[in-house]
Amino acid sequence: MKRELVFKVIAVSIGIFIAIVAIEIVLRVQNFVKLDGFHNESPWHEVLHHGDGSFKVRDYGENCESEKIKLLLLGDSWMEDEFLSNTIGSEFAAKTGSCVQAINGSNSSYSPTLYLLMARQAYETYGKFDYIIVNIDETDIGDEWLRCRIPTVRDISGKIVAVPYQNDLHARYTWNGKLWAESSRFYIIRLIKFAFFYKALVPSFYNFTFSPEYSTWMQYVFAPEGASLHKKENGYFESRLLEMAAEISGYAAGAESVFVAHHPHFRGLVNSVDSGKLYLPIVSEAMASLQEKTGVSVLDARNHIMQIHGDELLNNTFVAGDPFSHLNDEGAIRYGKWIVGQIDLK
Questions:
Q1: pTM surpassing 0.85?
Q2: Residue 204 lies inside a defined structural domain of this protein
Q3: Containing domain of residue 311, as a range?
Q4: Which tens digit of pLDDT belongs to each residue from 59-112?
Q5: What is the number of structural domains in the chain?
Q6: Largest CA distance in the chain
Q7: Residues 162, 300: one domain?
Q8: Confidence at residue 144, expressed as pLDDT on a 0 to 100 scale
Q9: What angle do CA 19, 23, 28 make, to 5 degrees?
Q10: Residue 257: is it exposed, middle or buried by C-beta count within 10 angstroms (0-12/13-18/19+)?
Q11: Long-range contacts of range 211-218, CB-CB < 8 Å, 24 or more positions apart?
Q12: pLDDT, tens digit, 9 for 90 and up, residues 174-199
């Protein structure tokens, strides 16, 4: 009996050991759950919060060995999209008959404060621009209030100088959790750490701060309560928009060379949706007085939406199922053509 028991214990132990080794091997080669590489992919930026601060530079048109029209593109993931930015560059070149050098400083989850800082860096690197186009999105309100507001650093004159990632305690907490899990040698331990971190620690932290998901980020434009419940947040966004427009006008030939564009989300264009909230035109309202106050040109697609998309608006404009309403390829091309079509390039 004792010998059989010993053999059973040994057999079970070997089985468990083999299973652990197999799981460890699978975790190291699988691509479903990311368990490594975080220490090499830090999003931290001492000035721009996240991203690497780089610019994508591309020439459009012919005779690019000679003088070029310099175009700066700014925005979040909308302008980061190649279909929108490439359409704008190509249309600029076709309409002017000149070579256009497009410097794209867009980055996912950026907003007016970071557009301002990117424009400043672009000016320091490339000099003055002939034209600047900035795309403003509905998500920019949440990005300003939840991501940029607290970390923002100003100098003694009140000028914004940086939005350091290290000042964003919420973002640092979630990122350090990944580094903590990755610090373990064995991938099984990493998986256990990740499960504990995201299922226990992060939800507890969110209870005291905020949950970074759709309803939290977009609450400022929800109908009908967004305008009344979030006057302070929406007012803060408008102030940052004005500050951005005023400064970047100095990085071009003047305010008349700066164009601030906006395309409403799907939920702001329909009377009902299957789930979630409808949007109020909060961003459009904030942009309405921008031209009068700063002299920049406002290109708001809201009142031209059928002219831009026509019968394709509801069925072939937005990425299906995307709560943040990114434009699909065709929608981005139509929007880009409309933007350039509004600019006098004679």
A1: yes
A2: no
A3: 44-168+212-341
A4: 998 888 888 999 999 999 999 999 999 999 999 999 998 999 999 999 999 999
A5: 2
A6: 97
A7: yes
A8: 96
A9: 150
A10: buried
A11: 212/146, 212/170, 214/276, 214/323, 214/324, 215/276, 215/277, 216/142, 216/146, 217/139, 217/142, 217/143, 217/146, 218/138, 218/139, 218/142, 218/277, 218/279, 218/323, 218/324
A12: 888 888 888 888 888 888 888 888 88
Please list the residues that pair with 154 across neighbouring strands.
Answer: 160
Note whether residue 206 is domain-resident.
Answer: no
Cα 258 to chain centroid, rounded: 21
- Asked whether residue 203 is assigned to any structural domain, the reply reads no
Q: Are residues 55 and 30 in the same domain?
A: no
Lowest model confidence (mean pLDDT) among 80-89, 158-167, 192-201, 206-215: 206-215
Shared domain for 282 and 188, answered yes or no, is no
Q: Is residue 137, in this structure, part of any structural domain at all? A: yes
Q: Domain of 250: which CATH number?
A: 3.40.50.1110
Residues 48 and 38 in one domain: no
Torsion of CA 139, 51, 240, 104, to 10 degrees: -90
**Separation between Cα atoms, residue 292 and residue 345, nearest integer Å:** 22
From the number of C-beta atoms within 10 Å of its C-beta (0-12, 13-18, 19+), residue 158 rates as: exposed
Same domain? For 91 and 18 the reply is: no
- How close are the terminal C-alpha atoms of the chain, in Å? 97
Task: Return the sign of the alpha-carbon dihedral for residues 112, 114, 115, 119.
Answer: positive
> With pLDDT > 90 as the criterion, what percentage of the chain qualifies?
63
